[in-house]
Write the structure tokens for this entry.
Amino acid sequence: MDVTVKENPAETTQQRTSEKISGSQAVLEILIAENIKTIFGYPGGAIMPIYDALYDYNDRLDHVLVRHEQCAIHAAQGFARVNGDTGVVFATSGPGATNLVTGLADAMIDSTPVVCITGQVYAHLLGTDAFQETDVVNITTPVTKWNYQVTDAEEIPEILSRAFYIAKSGRPGPVLIDITKNAQLQLFEFKPYKKCTYIRSYRPKPIVREEYIREAAEVINGAKKPFVIFGQGVILGNAENEFCDFIEKTGIPAAWTILGLSALPTHHPLNVGMLGMHGNYGPNVLTNECDVLIAIGMRFDDRVTGRLDKYARQAKIIHLDIDPSEIDKNVKADIPVWGDCKETLPLLTELVNKRDHSEWLKKFRELQQKEFELCIDAELNPDGPILTMGEVIKFVNECAGDDAVIVSDVGQHQMVACRYANFKQSKSHVTSGGLGTMGFGLPAAIGAKLGAPEREVVAVVGDGGFQMTLQELGTIMQNNIAVKILVLNNHFLGMVRQWQQLFNEKRYSFTDIESPDFVTLANAYGIQSASVESREQLKKAVQKMIDHKGAYLLEVKVGKENNVFPMVPQGCSVSEIRLF
Amino acid sequence: MKKEYTITVYTEDRVGIVTRIAVIFSRRKINIQQLNTSPSEVEGIHRFTIVIEETEENMQKLIRQIEKQVEVLKAYYHTNEEIIWQEMALYKVSSECITEKVKVERLLHEYGARAIAIRKDYIVFEVTGHREETEKLIRFFEPFGLVEFVRGARVAILKTSTGFHEKVKLFEEYNGLPNANSVQEHEVAIQ
């Protein structure tokens, strides 16, 4: 397959004449040419030549030494999610590479552009069960958008240029390039690097078909109760403005998936809240009342749809997506609008009539009021002295400002953070949505802070997830990364416990979890910290955390057996959502 | 309802593509019944022929998953009526069957089979055809002592196809631009 490259003098800044350099140096030169500044990684035997070369590139590349390779890729994901660039990871062969698998699966399902470079044993040792040899290309095939093993340094420029192109273009995703040690050491003639812009067999975007746009516009123009649901596609396509123009012209209420969160400001008059299992009452119930459902850059995850055969059966479905395999995958689309929403939304906006759906919007607001009375009020303004996660999130969010980045881990606190934090700019919320990777929060927050150093970054983690990756406090310490860590401690693996309470007759099987003294722990890493459990202490402590210049850990002890509501129980329809 | 479908996939010639395609099926617990890899009419482009049993609805989804792979150029699926297909089988039979020479010759003629190796103690027959034909011959040979049987994966030619040369040109013309993607061609192909 041929890489055809458009000659662009700006892209080949270094007009050096060909010279012999090592495969390792080539890797680093290519990173610089690809405008990569930050690498997350961990050295080891099979990637030593690259690390040796890196020693001389310290002035041009920042390498962040993590404490576990899984966290290197989660950090790269957090980095990519806040600034839109591709995250880069280095890891060694064998265990180094296998430790990346969770992060690759996470980046795959959440469409995050990441390029992982792993060391591999010498090519002549492949297949001999050499020390730290593992078949990483085959292990990672189902969880990468593309992967490849390089055994000859001559391949490095072409393969890496493809890796960066594939990771970022179309629907983004993780790419893994495995480089054998001999290829890293091999000297070869490094010609001026050219970025890849085309691969014959790869179609990043489907062609936009105008007949579907016209058909969609007609249906939207005739709709009485249209409803927009959107996901991360809007953010990945940099189409926030195009999206806003579309809903504002049509006046259609819009609800988001958790990965779509922050694409539309919380207080936008057409923002009606969150979809899915712990989403808001209105958007869930009214999914089964709307007459036209317009899905934009989202993939109808089962946590969003609930029971599929009772999902929006009455509605005409219009589905906009860049990935043709998402259309009809879970929900059959009446009108498939293939393409990048950055291109399709303006075309659609042009053809739709300016409308006002305030009566229909009022229905969402009425249900929101009902949700407030029966559910939200008790969470945000509890009667008793015991703190709820909701009020803590609300308060931290107010203190940090709605332009702060919130990185949440996985579990009850994640749902609460999504429900109660307000955002006014895009790319402000990072979480593991599709894979639900506990332990994602802290390393992703490290990456997010490095990806957006000027912004406040708050990691919201539970006592369970925090203990899965808390060794990264070491990374924070060594690199002075000013993340604010909010540990919501309920002494339980809360989400599982909630299910055990609701569906397993309170048989709390291995969900009570003990924690170390988090304050002492943080102090051991030289990170300032505090622990609070009352409302009076909370306000001061949160303010102190936000005002603090460096990293800070705040543990807040919250109600042990609080539940997240509303909830669509598994196997139920979205309209069977429970408020309590 | 599940039906037998033949999938044709055009790919770049790269290590690892078999795995990328195979995991699409195994992840969904679909058994690949037959798998053939072969060069295609275009140099450097490989052609996979895969036979599975699935519902029409799932076939569309599977094809889109296959086409999503970076190194896949195009994938199609067809019912048996839409293709011209053959499967080749080899039968190793004890030489004793020679004793009923007349009967054997008549049947072999009927099935288009031929003896491709004749040894002192065994004969190897070859037949190429549809499943029923190769299967019938198993039953025919059994009484004579069928020592070994093997059937090759299906190869199929699409009745409506005009070949892949034009498609490849199309892929190459759209250098870096969103191109004439799967979509409309695909929909034509599946009808």
Remarks:
- Residues 25 and 53 of chain A are 6 Å apart (CA to CA).
- Chain A has three domains: 9-190, 210-364, 389-557.
